[in-house]
Every structure is written in C-alpha cells, then in structure tokens.
Amino acid sequence: MRTGHDLELVHVTKRYGGSAVAVSDVSHLFAGGSYVCLLGPSGCGKSSTLRMIAGHETVTEGSILLEGKDVTRLPPAKRGTAMMFQSYALFPHLSVTDNVAFSLKMKGVDGAARRAKAAEMLELVDMQRYADRLPSQLSGGQQQRVALARALITGPQVLLLDEPLSALDPFLRVRMRGELKRLQRELGISFIHVTHGQDEALALADEIVVMNNAKIEQAGPAREVFNAPATEFVARFMGGHNVVSLPRGRFAIRCDEIRLVSGPEGQLSGQEAVVQAVEYQGAHVALTVRAAGDQEIVALIPEAAFFERPKQPGDAVRLAWDEGRLHRLHA
C-alpha cells in the first residue's frame, strides 16, 4: 500500500564540533509507504541521518521535507515521525499500557481514550495479554514489541528504527524481521531502519541505501544492490561477491557463480589457483583460493558437488565462470 508521505533529504550535512563531518551533502527521496534500510559500517553516518530525520540531531546544512513540507527545524513531536530506539528506553516504573500511552498523556488525551488506543496498539503487536506487566517482567523480544507499539501510537507517517534487532538472539531476530515487515505492510507507512547487517537489509528492504564515509554509496531495490553493486565497497560490504582484477578493469562476481573445472573453460581457463581454506556452511562449502596476481577468491560450491570431489588446503584447482556474470565496478 503506497501513501503520499514521501520523505526527502536535500543536501543534508551534519558536522560535530565544527570540523568532524558525520553526514556530507546527502540528498535522497524515500518513497512513501516503503521499507528502507540504511546500511553501512559503524561510523558511516547512518544513525546521524536517522536522528536528523527524527529531530534528535540538528541539521548543520540542508533541508528535510516530509510530504513537501520543510520539517528541518520542527521539534520531534511536531514532524510526523516517530523513533524506536535501540535500547527500547521503556519507563521501568510504568506498566506496559502506561508506557505505550505515555506520549498521548503528554498531549493531554484523557485516560480512557489513551488506554483504549494503547490496547489497540498492543493488539497490533500481539502484546495485549501483558498490558499490566512492568518492563522488567518481559523478555527482550516482548520489550521490543512494547517499544514498537509506543512509537506507533502517535500515528506517524514515517517510523524510524535504530538497529532495532541488535539486542535479540539470532532466532528471535529472524522472527522479529517477519513481524516488522508484516506491520509495515499492514500500516502502509514508511519504515526507515538503520542496520549494519546485510542479511537483515536484504530480508526487509524494498530499498537499500548503502552509506560509507558520511555519503550514500549506492541506493536501489535490494536485489539490484546485491546483484549489481556500483562500487568495490558495496560489493565487499554486501558480501557474497568477489572483486577481481582483469586486464580490462575491476569486476564483481558472485561467489556462487564460480565453478571448479578440470579442463579449460571460462575466463580463468587453464589458470590454476591454490586452495587456502575450506569451510562447510551446510548447503554450500566455501572454498577460499589464491589465484594469479595474488587474488583471494571465494567459491561457494554446492555441498553434494564438493563432497563428490573434496578439496583440501594446498590442493591446486582451476576456476571458471560465465563472462556475462561479471559486473563492472566504478571507482
């Protein structure tokens, strides 16, 4: 479901202490009703970008527009966004219901109306049966759901999530990914989700915005960013790719596109590589090899194929791939 609430960053810069640049001249249009992941390593500027959108950080230069309206200087409660913090930041002395209803209390909404609205939100995140508990009586995943309900109760046009799954164990993280995606679809509002996890971004995002060194390195649909990385940084950061130097430039090729062959075939026909490491990964075996020009290349070999003709570190192998699967990288 697409809403009209587009969010736009126009030449946004954030400096700390005059010289340290956290975000440098970033412009981007976040389509209304989409799930966007801001992805990148620690210190790349993604959390600063999110906090500026929320109004928790001032913008040094540039503008933030929501539905065409300039919200750059508005306080957080007045701009149509809501933020869910990494730490959840629940009030320990308040019940689940009162935590969720807190922002409505601050707005002067009467008790019965805000409790009714809080009950509706708790039902949305499947937490209605815990309404009277304190945060300390909840698991991490349950606290997260309460924090989500509290962020959603104001009816934001854009929900901002700062590494919301980082505190959860791997099994719960995967389950909550599904919950977030379901909620976003049901509500039809934009979710902008900061993460440094490539798997998380690929699983959730309609659009991935990859940040590096305070700038946007590449933005596009999840599948496009993974299969057609624009730069060496994106190829390496997304994972699942090799970056190879060939006489005509630098290219990315997916690890699962590389084959082991016995005769001359493909780009590296007849060129030997030496196995450095073998790692069993379940459906695949990851083979790290060193090829000509001291290039380290990872090949993901289907499990059955590998164990038909297993390899050990030190073994000589030949690699091949289809020319059409090479993806040229820009500087």
Description of the structure:
The protein has helices at 46-54, 96-106, 111-124, 140-152, 170-187, 198-204, 222-227, 232-238, 303-308, and strands spanning 7-16, 20-30, 35-39, 61-66, 69-70, 81-84, 158-162, 190-195, 207-212, 215-221, 241-246, 249-254, 259-261, 272-280, 284-291, 295-302, 316-320, 327-328. The radius of gyration is 24 Å and the shape is globular. The chain is of the alpha+beta class and 331 residues long. It folds into two domains: 7-227, P-loop containing nucleotide triphosphate hydrolases (Rossmann fold); 240-328, Nucleic acid-binding proteins (OB fold (Dihydrolipoamide Acetyltransferase, E2P), Beta Barrel). The longest helix has 18 residues, at 170-187. Helices cover 27% and strands 33% of the residues. The protein has a six-stranded mixed beta sheet, sandwiched between helices. A five-stranded antiparallel beta sheet has the order 13-17-14-15-16. Strands 2-1-4-5 form a four-stranded antiparallel beta sheet, covered by helices on one side.
